[in-house]
Amino acid sequence: MNTLNIKKAHKTLNKDLTVGDPQTVLWKFCLPMFGSIIFQQLYNIADSLVAGRFIGENALAAVGNSYNVTLIFIAFAFGCNIGCSVIVSQFFGAKDYRQMKTAVYTTLIASAVLCAVLMLSGFLFCDPLLAQMKTQPEIMADSALYMDIYILGLPFLFFYNIATGIFSALGDSRTPFCFLAFSSTANIAADVLFVSGFHMGIAGVAWATFLCQGASCVLSLILVLKRLGEIKVNKKAAVFSTVLLKKLAVIAIPSILQQSFISVGNILIQRVINSFGISVTAGYSAAVKLNNLVITSFTTLGNGVSNFTAQNIGAGLPDRVKSGRRAGLRLVWCICIPIVLMYVCFGKYLLLLFMDAASYEALRTGQQFLWILSPFYFVVSAKLVTDGVLRGAGAMKAFMAATFTDLILRVLLAFCFSNLFGAVGIWCAWPIGWTIATGMSVYFYGKIRY
Fold it and tell me: Between vectors from CA 133 to CA 127 and to CA 136, what angle results, nearest 5°?
Protein backbone atom coordinates (compact mmCIF):
# COMPACT_ATOMS: atom_id res chain seq x y z
CA MET A 1 0.00 0.00 0.00
CA ASN A 2 1.39 3.40 -0.90
CA THR A 3 1.87 6.21 1.65
CA LEU A 4 -1.22 8.13 0.50
CA ASN A 5 -3.48 5.11 0.94
CA ILE A 6 -1.97 4.34 4.37
CA LYS A 7 -2.72 7.87 5.58
CA LYS A 8 -6.22 7.67 4.14
CA ALA A 9 -6.83 4.35 5.87
CA HIS A 10 -5.70 5.69 9.23
CA LYS A 11 -7.95 8.71 8.83
CA THR A 12 -10.91 6.57 7.79
CA LEU A 13 -10.43 3.99 10.51
CA ASN A 14 -10.16 6.63 13.22
CA LYS A 15 -7.43 5.84 15.70
CA ASP A 16 -3.90 4.48 15.76
CA LEU A 17 -3.22 3.40 19.37
CA THR A 18 0.54 3.29 18.85
CA VAL A 19 1.09 7.07 18.99
CA GLY A 20 0.41 9.70 21.63
CA ASP A 21 0.41 9.66 25.43
CA PRO A 22 -0.64 6.12 26.46
CA GLN A 23 -3.08 7.24 29.18
CA THR A 24 -4.75 9.86 27.01
CA VAL A 25 -4.99 7.51 24.04
CA LEU A 26 -6.28 4.59 26.10
CA TRP A 27 -8.83 6.61 28.06
CA LYS A 28 -10.22 8.26 24.93
CA PHE A 29 -10.47 4.85 23.32
CA CYS A 30 -11.92 2.99 26.32
CA LEU A 31 -14.48 5.46 27.65
CA PRO A 32 -16.80 5.11 24.63
CA MET A 33 -16.39 1.34 25.01
CA PHE A 34 -17.52 1.68 28.61
CA GLY A 35 -20.54 3.66 27.47
CA SER A 36 -21.25 1.03 24.83
CA ILE A 37 -21.29 -1.86 27.28
CA ILE A 38 -23.54 0.08 29.64
CA PHE A 39 -26.07 0.39 26.83
CA GLN A 40 -25.55 -3.24 25.80
CA GLN A 41 -26.26 -4.41 29.34
CA LEU A 42 -29.47 -2.40 29.26
CA TYR A 43 -30.78 -5.15 26.96
CA ASN A 44 -30.62 -7.69 29.77
CA ILE A 45 -31.51 -5.25 32.53
CA ALA A 46 -34.53 -4.02 30.58
CA ASP A 47 -35.72 -7.60 30.08
CA SER A 48 -35.57 -8.30 33.83
CA LEU A 49 -36.95 -4.91 34.79
CA VAL A 50 -39.97 -5.14 32.52
CA ALA A 51 -40.55 -8.80 33.39
CA GLY A 52 -40.42 -8.10 37.12
CA ARG A 53 -42.47 -4.89 37.13
CA PHE A 54 -45.06 -5.58 34.43
CA ILE A 55 -45.46 -9.38 34.60
CA GLY A 56 -44.41 -10.52 38.07
CA GLU A 57 -41.84 -12.22 40.29
CA ASN A 58 -42.12 -15.54 38.42
CA ALA A 59 -41.32 -13.81 35.12
CA LEU A 60 -38.31 -12.09 36.70
CA ALA A 61 -37.09 -15.47 37.97
CA ALA A 62 -37.65 -17.03 34.51
CA VAL A 63 -35.57 -14.38 32.72
CA GLY A 64 -32.83 -14.66 35.33
CA ASN A 65 -32.88 -18.45 35.14
CA SER A 66 -32.59 -18.39 31.33
CA TYR A 67 -29.86 -15.76 31.45
CA ASN A 68 -27.28 -18.26 32.70
CA VAL A 69 -27.93 -20.44 29.65
CA THR A 70 -27.71 -17.47 27.27
CA LEU A 71 -24.27 -16.73 28.69
CA ILE A 72 -23.00 -19.91 27.00
CA PHE A 73 -23.97 -18.53 23.60
CA ILE A 74 -22.60 -15.11 24.51
CA ALA A 75 -19.31 -16.83 25.40
CA PHE A 76 -18.89 -18.09 21.83
CA ALA A 77 -19.80 -14.72 20.34
CA PHE A 78 -17.40 -13.01 22.75
CA GLY A 79 -14.60 -15.40 21.78
CA CYS A 80 -15.11 -14.62 18.09
CA ASN A 81 -15.06 -10.93 18.97
CA ILE A 82 -11.78 -11.22 20.89
CA GLY A 83 -10.04 -13.46 18.37
CA CYS A 84 -10.89 -11.18 15.47
CA SER A 85 -10.18 -8.01 17.44
CA VAL A 86 -6.69 -9.03 18.60
CA ILE A 87 -5.52 -10.34 15.21
CA VAL A 88 -6.96 -7.38 13.29
CA SER A 89 -5.34 -5.01 15.82
CA GLN A 90 -1.96 -6.60 15.20
CA PHE A 91 -2.26 -6.28 11.41
CA PHE A 92 -3.56 -2.73 11.75
CA GLY A 93 -0.64 -1.80 14.00
CA ALA A 94 1.76 -3.38 11.49
CA LYS A 95 -0.09 -1.61 8.60
CA ASP A 96 -0.66 -4.92 6.81
CA TYR A 97 -4.14 -4.07 5.50
CA ARG A 98 -4.48 -6.95 3.05
CA GLN A 99 -4.03 -9.54 5.79
CA MET A 100 -6.28 -7.48 8.01
CA LYS A 101 -9.12 -7.78 5.48
CA THR A 102 -8.57 -11.51 5.12
CA ALA A 103 -8.73 -11.91 8.89
CA VAL A 104 -12.12 -10.17 8.93
CA TYR A 105 -13.56 -12.28 6.10
CA THR A 106 -12.23 -15.49 7.66
CA THR A 107 -13.84 -14.64 10.99
CA LEU A 108 -17.21 -13.93 9.39
CA ILE A 109 -17.25 -17.25 7.51
CA ALA A 110 -16.07 -19.35 10.46
CA SER A 111 -18.51 -17.63 12.82
CA ALA A 112 -21.44 -18.31 10.51
CA VAL A 113 -20.69 -22.04 10.61
CA LEU A 114 -20.21 -21.99 14.39
CA CYS A 115 -23.45 -20.07 14.88
CA ALA A 116 -25.43 -22.62 12.84
CA VAL A 117 -24.09 -25.47 14.97
CA LEU A 118 -24.95 -23.63 18.18
CA MET A 119 -28.50 -22.87 17.01
CA LEU A 120 -29.12 -26.54 16.29
CA SER A 121 -27.63 -27.55 19.64
CA GLY A 122 -29.68 -24.91 21.42
CA PHE A 123 -33.00 -26.10 20.05
CA LEU A 124 -32.12 -29.71 20.92
CA PHE A 125 -30.62 -29.34 24.38
CA CYS A 126 -31.83 -26.13 26.09
CA ASP A 127 -34.99 -27.66 27.57
CA PRO A 128 -33.13 -30.63 29.11
CA LEU A 129 -30.52 -28.20 30.45
CA LEU A 130 -33.20 -26.07 32.11
CA ALA A 131 -34.57 -29.21 33.73
CA GLN A 132 -31.11 -30.18 35.02
CA MET A 133 -30.83 -26.74 36.62
CA LYS A 134 -33.80 -27.65 38.86
CA THR A 135 -35.87 -24.92 37.22
CA GLN A 136 -39.05 -24.58 39.26
CA PRO A 137 -42.22 -25.86 37.51
CA GLU A 138 -43.85 -22.42 37.85
CA ILE A 139 -41.24 -20.81 35.58
CA MET A 140 -40.24 -23.71 33.31
CA ALA A 141 -42.56 -22.80 30.41
CA ASP A 142 -41.56 -19.12 30.42
CA SER A 143 -37.84 -19.98 30.65
CA ALA A 144 -38.10 -22.36 27.68
CA LEU A 145 -40.09 -19.87 25.58
CA TYR A 146 -37.60 -17.08 26.28
CA MET A 147 -34.72 -19.39 25.28
CA ASP A 148 -36.36 -20.49 21.99
CA ILE A 149 -36.76 -16.89 20.82
CA TYR A 150 -33.28 -16.00 22.03
CA ILE A 151 -31.74 -18.82 19.98
CA LEU A 152 -33.44 -17.52 16.83
CA GLY A 153 -31.52 -14.28 17.30
CA LEU A 154 -28.07 -15.89 17.64
CA PRO A 155 -26.87 -14.75 14.17
CA PHE A 156 -27.52 -11.15 15.22
CA LEU A 157 -25.59 -11.72 18.47
CA PHE A 158 -22.60 -13.25 16.65
CA PHE A 159 -22.22 -10.81 13.79
CA TYR A 160 -22.85 -7.77 15.93
CA ASN A 161 -20.08 -8.85 18.31
CA ILE A 162 -17.70 -9.42 15.40
CA ALA A 163 -18.52 -5.99 13.99
CA THR A 164 -17.82 -4.29 17.33
CA GLY A 165 -14.58 -6.25 17.62
CA ILE A 166 -13.48 -4.94 14.23
CA PHE A 167 -14.40 -1.37 15.12
CA SER A 168 -12.38 -1.66 18.34
CA ALA A 169 -9.39 -3.20 16.54
CA LEU A 170 -9.36 -0.24 14.19
CA GLY A 171 -9.38 2.21 17.07
CA ASP A 172 -13.03 3.21 16.63
CA SER A 173 -14.93 2.89 19.90
CA ARG A 174 -17.45 5.63 19.13
CA THR A 175 -19.41 3.95 16.35
CA PRO A 176 -20.43 0.92 18.48
CA PHE A 177 -21.43 3.36 21.22
CA CYS A 178 -23.79 5.20 18.86
CA PHE A 179 -25.36 1.94 17.63
CA LEU A 180 -25.88 0.65 21.16
CA ALA A 181 -27.22 3.92 22.53
CA PHE A 182 -29.91 3.90 19.87
CA SER A 183 -30.77 0.18 19.94
CA SER A 184 -30.79 -0.12 23.75
CA THR A 185 -33.13 2.83 24.09
CA ALA A 186 -35.36 1.32 21.41
CA ASN A 187 -35.23 -2.05 23.22
CA ILE A 188 -36.55 -0.55 26.45
CA ALA A 189 -39.41 1.11 24.58
CA ALA A 190 -40.18 -2.11 22.69
CA ASP A 191 -40.12 -4.16 25.92
CA VAL A 192 -42.71 -1.91 27.51
CA LEU A 193 -44.83 -1.76 24.34
CA PHE A 194 -44.88 -5.53 23.74
CA VAL A 195 -45.49 -6.45 27.39
CA SER A 196 -47.66 -3.61 28.69
CA GLY A 197 -49.32 -2.54 25.44
CA PHE A 198 -49.68 -5.80 23.51
CA HIS A 199 -49.79 -8.10 26.60
CA MET A 200 -47.33 -10.57 25.04
CA GLY A 201 -45.86 -11.63 28.39
CA ILE A 202 -42.36 -13.13 28.48
CA ALA A 203 -42.42 -13.56 24.68
CA GLY A 204 -42.69 -9.79 24.27
CA VAL A 205 -39.50 -9.30 26.26
CA ALA A 206 -37.64 -11.78 24.04
CA TRP A 207 -38.99 -10.47 20.73
CA ALA A 208 -38.09 -6.89 21.63
CA THR A 209 -34.46 -7.91 22.13
CA PHE A 210 -34.52 -9.95 18.91
CA LEU A 211 -35.73 -7.03 16.77
CA CYS A 212 -33.52 -4.32 18.26
CA GLN A 213 -30.35 -6.40 18.26
CA GLY A 214 -31.11 -7.46 14.69
CA ALA A 215 -31.30 -3.86 13.53
CA SER A 216 -27.98 -3.03 15.23
CA CYS A 217 -26.32 -6.08 13.70
CA VAL A 218 -27.36 -5.28 10.12
CA LEU A 219 -26.38 -1.61 10.33
CA SER A 220 -23.01 -2.30 11.96
CA LEU A 221 -22.09 -4.97 9.40
CA ILE A 222 -22.96 -2.63 6.53
CA LEU A 223 -20.71 0.06 7.97
CA VAL A 224 -17.83 -2.35 8.67
CA LEU A 225 -17.87 -3.69 5.11
CA LYS A 226 -18.12 -0.15 3.74
CA ARG A 227 -15.04 0.93 5.67
CA LEU A 228 -13.06 -2.10 4.62
CA GLY A 229 -14.02 -1.41 1.01
CA GLU A 230 -12.55 2.09 1.27
CA ILE A 231 -9.10 0.67 2.02
CA LYS A 232 -7.30 0.03 -1.25
CA VAL A 233 -4.58 -2.61 -1.35
CA ASN A 234 -2.16 -3.53 -4.12
CA LYS A 235 -3.30 -7.15 -4.17
CA LYS A 236 -6.83 -8.38 -3.59
CA ALA A 237 -7.33 -9.82 -0.11
CA ALA A 238 -8.15 -13.52 0.12
CA VAL A 239 -11.67 -14.33 1.29
CA PHE A 240 -10.54 -17.17 3.57
CA SER A 241 -7.22 -18.26 5.07
CA THR A 242 -6.64 -21.48 7.00
CA VAL A 243 -3.44 -20.01 8.44
CA LEU A 244 -5.27 -16.98 9.79
CA LEU A 245 -8.12 -19.17 11.06
CA LYS A 246 -5.58 -21.03 13.20
CA LYS A 247 -4.21 -17.73 14.52
CA LEU A 248 -7.72 -16.54 15.29
CA ALA A 249 -8.49 -19.84 17.01
CA VAL A 250 -5.43 -19.54 19.26
CA ILE A 251 -6.93 -16.35 20.70
CA ALA A 252 -10.63 -17.16 20.36
CA ILE A 253 -10.76 -20.69 21.77
CA PRO A 254 -9.25 -19.85 25.19
CA SER A 255 -11.64 -16.89 25.46
CA ILE A 256 -14.58 -19.11 24.46
CA LEU A 257 -13.51 -21.75 26.97
CA GLN A 258 -13.08 -19.10 29.64
CA GLN A 259 -16.53 -17.65 29.15
CA SER A 260 -18.15 -21.05 28.56
CA PHE A 261 -16.76 -22.56 31.72
CA ILE A 262 -17.80 -19.47 33.65
CA SER A 263 -21.28 -19.94 32.21
CA VAL A 264 -21.30 -23.63 33.12
CA GLY A 265 -20.12 -22.66 36.59
CA ASN A 266 -22.93 -20.14 36.85
CA ILE A 267 -25.43 -22.81 35.79
CA LEU A 268 -24.15 -25.11 38.53
CA ILE A 269 -24.42 -22.26 41.02
CA GLN A 270 -27.90 -21.43 39.70
CA ARG A 271 -28.90 -25.03 40.44
CA VAL A 272 -27.94 -24.48 44.09
CA ILE A 273 -29.71 -21.11 44.19
CA ASN A 274 -32.91 -22.57 42.74
CA SER A 275 -33.08 -25.01 45.64
CA PHE A 276 -33.71 -22.06 48.00
CA GLY A 277 -37.01 -21.13 46.31
CA ILE A 278 -38.54 -18.62 43.88
CA SER A 279 -37.92 -15.52 46.03
CA VAL A 280 -34.19 -16.20 46.40
CA THR A 281 -33.97 -16.95 42.66
CA ALA A 282 -35.73 -13.67 41.85
CA GLY A 283 -33.56 -11.64 44.24
CA TYR A 284 -30.40 -13.17 42.80
CA SER A 285 -31.68 -12.60 39.25
CA ALA A 286 -32.04 -8.87 39.91
CA ALA A 287 -28.77 -8.47 41.82
CA VAL A 288 -26.69 -10.52 39.40
CA LYS A 289 -27.83 -8.27 36.54
CA LEU A 290 -26.43 -5.28 38.45
CA ASN A 291 -23.25 -7.25 39.16
CA ASN A 292 -22.86 -8.38 35.54
CA LEU A 293 -23.30 -4.78 34.40
CA VAL A 294 -20.11 -3.95 36.29
CA ILE A 295 -18.13 -7.12 35.49
CA THR A 296 -18.99 -6.98 31.80
CA SER A 297 -18.02 -3.31 31.71
CA PHE A 298 -14.62 -4.08 33.21
CA THR A 299 -14.20 -7.02 30.84
CA THR A 300 -14.90 -4.69 27.91
CA LEU A 301 -12.36 -2.18 29.20
CA GLY A 302 -9.95 -5.11 29.45
CA ASN A 303 -10.68 -5.80 25.79
CA GLY A 304 -9.71 -2.21 25.06
CA VAL A 305 -6.41 -2.84 26.83
CA SER A 306 -6.04 -5.97 24.65
CA ASN A 307 -6.47 -3.86 21.49
CA PHE A 308 -3.97 -1.31 22.82
CA THR A 309 -1.49 -4.07 23.68
CA ALA A 310 -1.89 -5.90 20.37
CA GLN A 311 -1.50 -2.76 18.24
CA ASN A 312 1.65 -1.70 20.08
CA ILE A 313 3.19 -5.17 19.98
CA GLY A 314 2.34 -5.34 16.27
CA ALA A 315 4.07 -1.98 15.80
CA GLY A 316 7.12 -3.15 17.78
CA LEU A 317 6.47 -0.83 20.76
CA PRO A 318 6.28 -3.11 23.83
CA ASP A 319 7.34 -0.37 26.27
CA ARG A 320 3.97 1.34 25.77
CA VAL A 321 2.17 -1.77 27.06
CA LYS A 322 3.18 -1.22 30.70
CA SER A 323 2.05 2.39 30.54
CA GLY A 324 -1.22 1.23 29.02
CA ARG A 325 -1.84 -1.24 31.86
CA ARG A 326 -1.23 1.45 34.50
CA ALA A 327 -3.61 3.77 32.67
CA GLY A 328 -6.19 0.98 32.51
CA LEU A 329 -5.96 0.36 36.26
CA ARG A 330 -6.43 4.04 37.02
CA LEU A 331 -9.48 4.11 34.77
CA VAL A 332 -11.25 1.08 36.28
CA TRP A 333 -10.52 2.14 39.85
CA CYS A 334 -11.96 5.59 39.17
CA ILE A 335 -15.10 3.86 37.91
CA CYS A 336 -15.18 1.49 40.91
CA ILE A 337 -15.49 4.23 43.52
CA PRO A 338 -18.97 5.56 42.62
CA ILE A 339 -20.28 2.09 41.71
CA VAL A 340 -19.27 0.51 45.04
CA LEU A 341 -20.73 3.43 46.99
CA MET A 342 -23.95 3.25 45.02
CA TYR A 343 -24.39 -0.52 45.42
CA VAL A 344 -23.55 -0.52 49.13
CA CYS A 345 -25.59 2.55 50.07
CA PHE A 346 -28.41 2.54 47.54
CA GLY A 347 -28.58 -1.08 46.34
CA LYS A 348 -32.07 -1.48 47.80
CA TYR A 349 -33.48 1.23 45.57
CA LEU A 350 -31.80 -0.20 42.46
CA LEU A 351 -33.25 -3.62 43.23
CA LEU A 352 -36.71 -2.11 43.68
CA LEU A 353 -36.61 -1.22 39.99
CA PHE A 354 -36.99 -4.96 39.35
CA MET A 355 -39.46 -5.98 42.04
CA ASP A 356 -42.18 -4.84 44.40
CA ALA A 357 -41.31 -3.73 47.92
CA ALA A 358 -43.55 -6.56 49.15
CA SER A 359 -41.02 -9.13 47.87
CA TYR A 360 -39.11 -8.96 51.15
CA GLU A 361 -37.04 -12.14 50.81
CA ALA A 362 -36.10 -11.36 47.21
CA LEU A 363 -35.06 -7.83 48.17
CA ARG A 364 -33.03 -9.05 51.15
CA THR A 365 -31.28 -11.64 48.98
CA GLY A 366 -30.32 -9.02 46.39
CA GLN A 367 -29.00 -6.62 49.02
CA GLN A 368 -26.83 -9.28 50.66
CA PHE A 369 -25.39 -10.21 47.27
CA LEU A 370 -24.43 -6.59 46.48
CA TRP A 371 -23.03 -5.86 49.95
CA ILE A 372 -20.73 -8.88 49.83
CA LEU A 373 -19.50 -8.57 46.23
CA SER A 374 -19.26 -4.87 45.41
CA PRO A 375 -16.27 -3.94 47.66
CA PHE A 376 -14.22 -6.51 45.76
CA TYR A 377 -14.78 -4.79 42.41
CA PHE A 378 -11.44 -3.05 43.01
CA VAL A 379 -9.80 -6.49 43.04
CA VAL A 380 -11.53 -8.14 40.09
CA SER A 381 -11.15 -5.02 37.91
CA ALA A 382 -7.37 -5.27 38.33
CA LYS A 383 -7.57 -8.88 37.15
CA LEU A 384 -9.62 -8.03 34.08
CA VAL A 385 -7.27 -5.22 33.00
CA THR A 386 -4.25 -7.49 33.50
CA ASP A 387 -6.05 -10.24 31.58
CA GLY A 388 -6.42 -7.74 28.74
CA VAL A 389 -2.65 -7.39 28.54
CA LEU A 390 -2.18 -11.17 28.66
CA ARG A 391 -4.64 -11.67 25.78
CA GLY A 392 -3.18 -8.86 23.69
CA ALA A 393 0.30 -10.30 24.17
CA GLY A 394 -0.89 -13.80 23.25
CA ALA A 395 -0.16 -15.25 26.72
CA MET A 396 -3.31 -17.38 26.61
CA LYS A 397 -2.12 -20.23 28.84
CA ALA A 398 -1.49 -17.82 31.70
CA PHE A 399 -4.81 -16.12 31.04
CA MET A 400 -6.70 -19.42 31.15
CA ALA A 401 -4.91 -20.66 34.28
CA ALA A 402 -5.97 -17.62 36.30
CA THR A 403 -9.51 -17.66 34.92
CA PHE A 404 -10.15 -21.35 35.55
CA THR A 405 -8.77 -21.07 39.08
CA ASP A 406 -11.33 -18.34 39.77
CA LEU A 407 -14.16 -20.41 38.31
CA ILE A 408 -13.30 -23.69 40.04
CA LEU A 409 -12.92 -22.00 43.42
CA ARG A 410 -16.22 -20.13 43.09
CA VAL A 411 -18.18 -23.25 42.14
CA LEU A 412 -16.66 -25.54 44.77
CA LEU A 413 -16.92 -22.95 47.53
CA ALA A 414 -20.51 -22.11 46.55
CA PHE A 415 -21.51 -25.75 47.04
CA CYS A 416 -19.61 -26.06 50.34
CA PHE A 417 -20.61 -22.70 51.83
CA SER A 418 -24.28 -23.08 50.87
CA ASN A 419 -24.48 -26.13 53.15
CA LEU A 420 -22.89 -24.20 56.00
CA PHE A 421 -24.30 -20.68 55.66
CA GLY A 422 -27.25 -20.96 53.27
CA ALA A 423 -27.58 -18.61 50.27
CA VAL A 424 -25.19 -16.08 51.85
CA GLY A 425 -22.43 -18.68 51.62
CA ILE A 426 -22.85 -18.78 47.84
CA TRP A 427 -22.22 -15.05 47.56
CA CYS A 428 -19.07 -15.32 49.72
CA ALA A 429 -17.46 -17.66 47.17
CA TRP A 430 -17.11 -14.84 44.60
CA PRO A 431 -14.60 -12.59 46.45
CA ILE A 432 -12.37 -15.52 47.37
CA GLY A 433 -12.12 -16.71 43.77
CA TRP A 434 -11.58 -13.17 42.48
CA THR A 435 -8.78 -12.42 44.95
CA ILE A 436 -6.75 -15.57 44.30
CA ALA A 437 -7.16 -15.33 40.51
CA THR A 438 -6.12 -11.66 40.53
CA GLY A 439 -2.88 -12.58 42.30
CA MET A 440 -2.21 -15.20 39.62
CA SER A 441 -2.89 -12.79 36.73
CA VAL A 442 -0.54 -10.18 38.18
CA TYR A 443 2.13 -12.84 38.68
CA PHE A 444 1.84 -14.05 35.08
CA TYR A 445 1.92 -10.47 33.81
CA GLY A 446 5.31 -10.00 35.49
CA LYS A 447 6.61 -13.01 33.55
CA ILE A 448 5.62 -11.79 30.06
CA ARG A 449 8.40 -11.48 27.52
CA TYR A 450 7.34 -9.49 24.44
Answer: 85
